[in-house]
User: Fold these one by one.
Assistant:
Number 1:
Amino acid sequence: MAAMAAILLAAYLIRGITGFGSGLISVPLLALFLPLQFVVPLILLLDFTASIVIGGLNFKRVHWNEIGILIPFGIVGVVLGTSLLVNLSPEPMLIALAGFVFVFAVRSVLDIRGDRPASRAWAAPAALTGGTVGALFGTGGPPYVIYLTHRIRDKSDLRATFSALFFTEGLTRIASFLVAGLLMTAEVWTAYLAALPLVLGALYLGGRVHVGLSQAQMTRLVGVLLLVSSISLLFKALNA
């Protein structure tokens, strides 16, 4: 329980700072000593709550025009990912995604980016990839993050848009988890209620840290999280 509390504190402190990253940190670590069928639904509920808290407090900063383009392609990606999960071996796709995310993570850490925003044409492949990988592995955030960080410059707008996007995606995943019965266990809801005060406190502290970050620091922090994500994806592929 102490290890679980420490992991959740670190994960949602990062989520409070950047608007994403809690699943990238918490799921691989918690899955080392807890069943994945317990971990993924629990983090889904906590992430959904975090999206409400962060997105709700910054409603005017959300770039809804960006989210509106991503969501339809993301839904298609979820359907595709579910089909792939049933029919294909996921390891080669995980390795390919890990390499893709790693390249963009290095770009963010070194702050290598042009002055012009990324073309909106990249919304389709980003959302398709994010939806597909999210359905397959529960870690669909990096493609969305890569795209939005190259579209939105303001760090507070970026943080709020992340949360609003993951809130919308969370609704779809909650519905599918309810149908599959993954959210119908007392253990998941008990752990959620027990962890909620810790998570809310971590989000508050992360929000305070976020205010003091410069745009360059925010970009590099996102890059570090993407590096963690790429390593986590590669680890999953090699140990599947």
Number 2:
Amino acid sequence: MQILLVEDDQPLAQGLKAALSRQHYSVNHVDTGRACIHVVETEPPDIIILDIGLPDINGLKVLESIRSRSAALPVLLLTARDTLHDKVTGLDSGADDYLAKPFEMSELLARLRVLERRLSSVKSTKITIGPITLDTSDQSVSCQGEPKELSRREYMLLKALMENAGRIMTRNTLEARLYSWGEEICSNALEVHIHHLRKKLGVDFIKTVRGVGYKVTAP
């Protein structure tokens, strides 16, 4: 899941980016409204976390611009203003959710999970395909009931494939889910992760579509 964090408070942004990365999210960060609009136009993320108090354009104006391009892109507003009027204004402007600063990280993560479920064809926290069960609530994976230890990126990769069961996921799409901007990616990194997953989950669970990408067959 790729998140675009739009926040001009650099210490807060770096803290959020680090915390979200530890929770298996791929996080890219910009600190202006114009940069956010450019990303939405050129490389749309899965979810946007948008601060209202940006230095160049008010966040609600940025949200208006986002909605003119995409009605479905989930946007979670962050703001230091927490009056009922502010919340209603944010939601009426097209936000999917609203979180007032300061907030607990656990609450942000819970709200992100709700937005993820809206995006996914899977509406439960548990995804079961064949012998494999992935639970997004505690980020666990089991095979035939036996828990499996996965690395952060192995989990992210498996989650992307299982949420899109039956669809071919291209290499570029999967790499965007796994890595943030500027991260160095080895040419065979994706293949290495797939290899490790097959060793842990069975060689037939993830199918290779030669020259295109990978998929998990829908049940």
